[in-house]
Amino acid sequence: MSEREAKFPALLAELRPHCERLIAQYERKRSALLPIVHLFQEREGYVSHEAMRAVAAMLDLTPAEVESTVSFYTLFFRRPIGKYLIQVCRGLSCSINGAPEVMARCRERLGVGHLGTTADGLFSYEEVECLAACDRATCAQVNLEFVYDLTPAAVDAMLDDLRAGTATVRPLVQTDPPGAIWSIRQDEQVATGTKALGSRGVTNPNNAGGVGDAAGLIMLDRIVNKTVSFHEATRERAVRDSRAVRDVVEEEEAQAHAGH
Amino acid sequence: MPVTKVLTDGIGEVDLRDLAVYRARGGYRQWERAVRELQPADVLAAAETSGLRGRGGAGFPTGRKWSFLPTDKHVRYLVCNCDEAEPGTFKDHMLLEEAPHLVLEGILLGAYGIACHHAFIYIRGEFKRGYEIFVRALEEARQAGLVGSNVFGSGFDIEVTAHRGAGAYICGEETGLLNSLEGKRGEPRLKPPFPAIEGLYGAPTVVNNVETLAYLVPILEKGANWFASVGTERSKGYKIVSVSGHVQKPGNYEIALGTTVREIIEIAGGLRPGRRLMAVQPGGGSSACIFEEHLDLPYDYESMAKAGSMLGSGAFVVFDDTTDFVAAAYNMVRFFAHESCGQCTPCREGGHWIETVLARLVRGEGIEGDDAMMLRVAGTITGLNLCALGDSIEPFLKSVLVRFPDAFKARIPSAAPASAVAS
Amino acid sequence: MADNAVNVTLTIDGVPVTVPKGTLLVEAAKTVKQEIPVYCYHPKLGPAGLCRVCLVDIEGMPKLQIACNTPAADGMVVHTRNDKVDAGRAMILELLLVNHPLDCPICDKGGECDLQDYAMAYGRGSSDLVDPKTRKPKGVDLGPTIVLDEERCVVCQRCVRFDDIIADERQLVLKDRGVRDIIATSTGDPYRHNFTGNVTELCPVGALTSKTYRFKSRPWDLQRTQTTCTQCAVGCQMFSDVRYGVPLRTMSVEHDAISDGWLCDRGRYNIGFYDSAERIVQPLYRRNGTFVQIGWDDAFTLWGKALREALRARGPEAVGAIGGGRLTNEEAYLLQHLTRAVGSANLDWRAGLARQATPGAKGGTLAALDRAQAIVTIGEPLRERAPVLWLRILKAVRRGARLIAAATPAEAAAQCAGLAPIALVWDGVDPALGAAYDGAFAGFAEVATFIASEQGNARGAEAMGMLPAFGPGYAAVAPGRGTRAMLEDARAGRLRVLSILGANPAAYAPNAAAEALDALEFTVVSELFMTETAARATLVLPARGPLEKSGTTLNLTGDLLPLHASLQAPEGTLADLEMLIGLAQQLDVELPSAEDLERAVIAHAAKLPTGFGLGDARFDDGPSVAPPPHVHRTIFDGAGTAAHDPRLTSLRALEVGV
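^ Those are the sequences you sent over. The predicted structure of the assembly is below.
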């Protein structure tokens, strides 16, 4: 159990009164979903699995319903992200006013692409749709605080300030170390491939029947080995494809930016 | 015609976030007058007489929208749409951050106008700062007895809840917004039923844009006829235009409707020296471009529609001759594909397909027939979608593709004629 | 309500049509035999407006409209085919195929796929697509029953809506958005409940597939037989699809009156046991403590001899029979006929917890359940006991009915005050409880009662007279001994020969039952597998399963439903009917002719059982004894066989969690 997981019950107890106040603002409980998820994300840095389950219990929903809703919104992070989230506007007005140069400098300085997190876990980087500050192109947000009139030189200064800790923007909470990929664009199943059928030896509870129960494992064994005969080729393809998707996604993003 | 100051009055000069400052300039006086002296029907009548049309994009007459509410249902809601995300639009963002009390007073008047007791404002997730400013203003107003039960001793109860989104353009679509406000995926709903009949929590609901509601304040103050006396025949009053792109002084400018396109460009400082105007996108990402020959058209709902475009949200993006229109088209279509909720086939698949083709064109890997395919697909899906997002893919793409065909042809490796590159 | 009575008249493709106001165009078009293609729309799920393929042209409307969400209106002129409509539909199909993998040659759905069919009927025949398709994971393991191919998914959300609206499980949802939309469960959770298989049928393409059927067959190679599911008392209508003698899958039948078009996973997937290697395929006779294989002639001789000797030596009280709940009506009728013909009234179908299967005078129909304003459930959860009945209850709840599971009968009655009609659904286990509810609701005007018993043909067995106190058609007779009493008699040495056909009493109270069976002189058990009871038998007769025989069955509301054999039974097995005919010859008992038997079954099944209510004393057979935890009653009482289908291993775990 990670430190964050260990602390989760205490966090839940602490936030519960706040959640109840949020729920009371609405005629129906479920309306409080977005505000409550925001609340947990602020405290954990991302929307953890535990948080989604807790929210489901609070709002009389299934965990699947909560996850479905959370996955719809780009500002909910289902994976840990960096302490500074830099979101550069790629809207049309910014794009014809220097955004491509600003984005190129960010990528170069951070050494990551769109939706990437730096290896030190300090920065996550994203190119986002119009931020409604087109008169101050190129605009961006750092931890949702607006930054206006960005130029490559201003990017340098901004990143230096953030790294040196001299910027006014506060870092995000980081309770788990971020991985290289964090966006909703890469669903767990796609990114990790753990859901692919027939990967032998995978005892992921998602697989075949189980929640770790013996029946599930027996079932898994039977599927993999003999009783339910999947074509060998198909099985291999499933594994391969689920890995390939991640590559395709990344390639698409890269292509998109090569164009701009 | 000069820039006027109605909603923008005081912005950038005084701190309108301060309740005392706002009240000293006459703030909340219309709210007080409404609940003390007027009937909801009076507010509705003012909205109707003023000719105020929705400032969020669709331009639907506000009074008429309110009048669709069934009279026999008493639980009803007003939702202020502050999910401003239409590319090029940045007026609500400004109003929210600079004049939160004006926004709130507009909401209160709107709520009174439809006789509802619980109003919401749905604030775009990215506007975290704006949300905090508004919530502070709301709390101040609550402390001052402007919001809550029995305001000004009138017996009228009104609750206002600020709700922050989490990153989804489609939540600006009114039924997507209602789903999001109900804690669901922001997917637009199948219509009918329309929100006026079955909206939030199944109750009759009006969704109005921030700017629309804010105009109720000066309309009540100066009279509906004052508002109706400005503008053109079917486009009354004022409008904040968000001018950006290739102009020297981009910004929000409040103008009387009917000001010409040329005047708006001039108000925003004109083009950079030595540059030639190629196109203007006059009404947000969903609008088609207009061109040089349209410069003297009045900027109003009818004229823009007549020119094959629309006034939309008042996002006014100017393009000069440095613009790469293939990249611009790609940018626009990518936006709609990225923001498609994915529910309905034409928008989900069509948008993504065209985006893929445009990305290839941008890379210079076009093939013969790409242009025809894009026009065919974008054109055929228009009108087949569940909501307006999918219908928004075609206008900009088609307008630049038809106007600048050579720019697209130039991206086909083998077939690029030397003369085409210059355009 | 007055509005509903009003009809509207419109024109569809030039044909005037009159339909009730509110009818959707997609339904109205069916009246002129005009097909409108749909993916997301489903009559049971309602309109969703997602796929946009059901486009029609309505005069006076500039844009094409979707037929699934447009109600018919007076004077409307609708064209379901013209150039405009065809162009719109062709575009939708072209778009659906843009990212579809077109792996039809290896797709289970190939040949019965709406995407194939509509692409053929309305598609353009070619595509301008030159760019690569979006790749998504294939073969995603959703849970014990279902595999998802995300590339094939057309995001119609039928499965999502089924899980929400019909099954009330909300486990399957849409994740992400736009072109990356995928169907998924909550991360880490398997898709697992009692109705998952239905999504494979709802899926208009090959995205959701059953693990048991994946890559097994082309649909046109299947031999299809319509029959009745016997695994619980609902009697769902289903197709049994067989290839080379192997039941590859079962599919639901659109039968609104019984199953409403659904099947539960137990009924759908519990078919793997038929070709299990562990099936008994030859009569077994216990000699010196071990079973030896014998021929059928010897088996009949031994059985007949044992009975004749017991009758001669000790009289009719020394013989008895248990069975019927898992037999056909015909078999149950013959079993009681034979037993009563030799003078014994020791017969009973009850071998488990249930005590009563026929609700009596106030017994309701499934249609009555649809009208109920309050539904009171008594006893075990119905979701597992009578799954598809539970779906019908959920449907009533969606319509506004109150679902009540109260602590006491009085409390339930209080909650029902002022509501009518009321439905009482009892599990038939505790007669005192049943009687208490009967009493508590005696004063209510409109009460319909239901008993969701644990065996598929429990009510049929009762109607055919397999009860100690009732003859065929619930005729009152001089009572004999019931199951519990027979086992007592066995222990006391009063009962000498017991014939058990399709029942497993030793699974319950194993020690007491085992002791009783061991004390018998001669025990005959007809079974498919070596159950706890068969293991104690003197003679084990290899029986046939429900898909291997024809006949009729009676469901919990008294509907007489047909069984049609779809499988060739293994060599060496006989249907219980054939066994009883063989025994009759040994005993010189004259059996009714086939025609007389059919007439008797129909007549007795149609008898309205009056004169008793829930928990009537005549059904008393002493207190029910809970089985040990390893006995998965609801699945295994159905056919007594699921233990022998490895594919159901994980489904069994589902039941334990109940």
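Chain B has a mean pLDDT of 95. The beta strands of chain B are 77-82, 118-123, 159-164, 205-209, 238-245, 251-256, 277-281, 315-320.

Shout if you want it in another format.
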